[in-house]
Amino acid sequence: MLAVRDRRDRAAFGLLFDYFAPRLKGVAMRSGLGSGAAEDVAQEVMLTVWRKAEKFDPHRAQVSAWIFQIARNRRIDLVRKENRPIPEEIKMVDRVEDDANQILAMDQEATQLKLALNRLKPDQRALVEKAYLGELSHKEISDQTGLALGTVKSRIRLGLERLRHELKGMR
C-alpha cells in the first residue's frame, strides 16, 4: 500500500487488488448483495483505494481496516440509495390543450417556489439546487464543494424544512 501511496506503483496495486477484491466481494455477498452487485462494489472500493491512496496513514489503521472501512461506507451508500423514494411516473395526458386555470396555477406555484428558494440562506439554496435541480447525490455535492458530507446533509435538510414551512399553504 505504501508503494501505491508514495509512487503510484501499478504492480503493487495489482497485488493489492488480487488479494482484497475477492475478499471484498465475499463480504458484500454475505451482506446480501448479488454476485454482480458485489463485484461492482469490490471494483468501486479498489478504484477508491487507487484514487485516495495518498490518504492512507499506516499509523492510523492497517491496510485491511482502511480498505474494509471504504467498503463499509460504499455498502451504506448503496443501502441509502436503494431506500430513496422513487418518484411516481408522470402520466401523459391525451389532451393537447391545457386548461388555462392549470397553467396559471402552475405558474403561480413556480413563482412561489422561486421566491421561497430565494429566501433561503445562500449556502442552503445552493446545496438544495445541486441536489434537486442538478440531481447530484449528497456525496457528489460533498466532493464538488469540499464540504463535509454531514454538513451537506444538514444544510439540505434545513433548507427543505424551511421550504416546507414557506410553501405549506400551497395545494
UniProtKB/TrEMBL annotation:
GO terms for biological process: DNA-templated transcription initiation. InterPro entries: RNA_pol_sigma-70-like, RNA_pol_sigma-70_dom, RNA_pol_sigma70_ECF_CS, RNA_pol_sigma70_r2, RNA_pol_sigma70_r4_t2, RNA_pol_sigma_r2, RNA_pol_sigma_r3/r4-like, WH-like_DNA-bd_sf. It comes from the Bacteria. GO terms for molecular function: DNA binding; sigma factor activity. Residues 16-84 form the RNA polymerase sigma-70 region domain. Residues 112-163 form the RNA polymerase sigma factor 70 region 4 type domain. Keywords: DNA-binding, Sigma factor, Transcription, Transcription regulation. Belongs to the sigma-70 factor family. ECF subfamily. This is RNA polymerase sigma factor. It comes from Roseovarius spongiae.
